[in-house]
What does this fold into?
Amino acid sequence: MRKPFIAGNWKMNTDSHSAVELASGLAGQLKDVHTVDIAVCPPFVYLSAVAKALNGSNIALGAQDVYFEPNGAYTGEISCAMLKNVCCTYAIIGHSERRHVIGETDELINKKISAAISGGLLPIFCVGELLEEREAGKTEAVVARQVKRGLAGLSSDKVLAVTIAYEPVWAIGTGVTATAEQAQDVHRMIRQLLAAMYDGSVAGEIRIQYGGSAKPANTAELMACADVDGLLVGGASLKVDDFTAMIKTVV
Ligand code: PEP
It folds into this structure.
């Protein structure tokens, strides 16, 4: 049985005050929730402050990215050890904004996933098709390619550390959510692919989150899908009441 996992991606939002306020508000509202894994992913510069605000709570900390090298002359990058050092459990890797705005490739994402697992972080590995790819009937091919290349070379033991987030790019930050049927179709396909790449037991254990304009009003419908095990939430994770309501829908 896969435990639901809901994570908030704060992206490039908040400041030192509002990040702590948001984290403290969530810690208070969600203190009695034990049947859902919860994480928040603030900007790098607020990780330490948010870690303090979450100390003793049931909310884990995640970063929005990580670099694959352990240290050295990589200006602007952040290593796994640095993230562990400020109490991170998770790292989002391959978010569509990094693929399509920054230009990250499947190969780079694969290196990051592999380094994150070796370094003791749990990757939230994002995949998803562009609108034109969906309209051209290429959703399955695009997502399958991203999954295969992103997980290339990972053993069954290691891949169990990964949560996959299916985030159709056309649904991220647009207010347009995939229907439950569209989400379930792709989630089912990903799980079948994992069974082919590994085996049924690995495929049955890996959690697959949906992301893309998830909000309180569509949480129940999305979470009712057999292969939707959680949500990666952007905009709605910046409001204590909305993120709390989404998690409480699943409890
Ligand atoms: C995201 O950033 O991963 C995301 C899904 O954003 P939003 O919920 O705002 O669409």
